[in-house]
Amino acid sequence: MADATTLLSQAEKQCHLRGVRFTPIRRRVLEMIAGANGGLKAYELLDRLAVEHAAARPPTIYRALDFLIEQGLVHRIESLNAYVACPCPEHTHGFQLLICRHCGHVEELHLDDVNAQLSERAHKLGFRVERQTIELLGSCDACLNATAHA
What we know:
Layout: H1 4-18, H2 24-34, H3 42-52, H4 58-70, E1 74-77, E2 82-85, E3 96-100, E4 106-109, H5 112-124, E5 134-138, H6 141-148
Parallel strand pairs: 3-5
Antiparallel strand pairs: 1-2, 3-4
């Protein structure tokens, strides 16, 4: 996973190329998500942002999150109702998330063949996919090693 500085730089570049505004609030929300060790919930983001911006309210966070998701800079972890930074916003294909249930670490995968198989099967069944989320919940290597040595 890229560091927060790299992710912010990539985000600025992507927003510039797409001609969309990367406002200070959007930047700060992405910075908080990118600096987290796992996913952050919207109200955790709001609590952190409110320390810096007293006027921050839930719509402030949700508008920023909607923008960041739309631009492919952040992914929503459906099972945790949390958000994680995308390490490669230039990648426009589907993705899969490996989520450690112990430490919360999230790793993003790009197994395009998996997405293609699912899309093909859905099409054959006459189903139009609007959004796809694949999350695998388990234990990361660090947590497995910590458990083994405990």
